[in-house]
Amino acid sequence: MARYYHSPSIFVDNLVKGRMGQYFKAFNLDKEEVVKPDWLKLMEHSYINNESVSSVEMLLVEGGRWHKDRIVWGGDYGEMDLWSVLYEDKAKNWVELKGLIEVIPDKYRYVVNYDTKEYVDKQDTTPEFAKYTDGYTEEITIHPMPLLLADGNGSGGGDYHGSDMNLVGSWKGNRIGILDKVPENFTKLNYKFKRAGSYVDH
Predict the structure, then answer these.
(1) How many CA atoms lie within 13 A of 166 on its CB side?
(2) What is the dihedral of CA 137, 120, 149, 65, to 10 degrees?
């Protein structure tokens, strides 16, 4: 698991907006269910084989509980203000799912958007090597799904800053699935998420 993502531009955002680190959860708008990652900042968990992200993927596989539902990776500074439903009167209608399967088979490599008829291939992500101040080196691979579904990225510490910023959040609120084959007449969305800055210890 990557330790912590740090970009110098994060601190500029915080100084301007007066905000600290931003926390994210996966929201299902149709079933009013939520999954809380073990590490809440976006770039603390948005990696291939991260257990929290894998648990959401398993919900989204064909036949899974969340397959083809509207999904948002909602930040507590997000424009959709999804976190408010967890603390106000609406909270009684929302359920946090726990005890989920945290490993997804490698064959489920395609993240599919049923509204835009697009898909991404997780294998298109290029691994990076994170070097920490204590000399520890770790191979990490950014997972495209949390970034594509993110609401509020760029508003707080721990957010994604890097290439293809225009794609971040472009799928939020759309109907999503995880498949082992590409559906007919779907277009591949090319991406290259590569972070700016460096990885440091907590």
Answers:
(1) 3
(2) -100
Farthest CA pair distance, the chain: 49
Q: H-type helices in 46-194, by residue range?
A: 51-60, 144-148
CB 8 within 8 Å of CB 200: no
Q: What is the pLDDT of residues 39-83, one digit of tens each?
A: 999 999 999 999 999 999 999 999 999 999 999 999 999 999 999
**Structural domain for 82, as ranges:** 5-199
Find where tokens 């707080």 sit: 156
Query: How confident is the model at residue 18, as a pLDDT?
Result: 52
CA torsion 182-100-158-131 (nearest 10°) is -80
Q: Using the 8-state DSSP alphabet, how is residue 61 labeled?
A: B
Q: How big, in percent rounded to 5, are the helix, strand and coil portions of the chain?
A: 20, 25, 50
**Is this structure's pTM higher than 0.85?**
yes
β-pair partners for 179 = 110
Assess whether pLDDT exceeds 70 at residue 161.
yes
The two beta strands, 137-140 and 33-35, are: unpaired
Cα separation, 64 vs 112, in Å, equals 14
- Number of domains, the chain: 1
Running DSSP on this structure, what letter comes out for residue 167?
A: G
**Helices of type H across the chain:** 8-17, 42-45, 51-60, 144-148
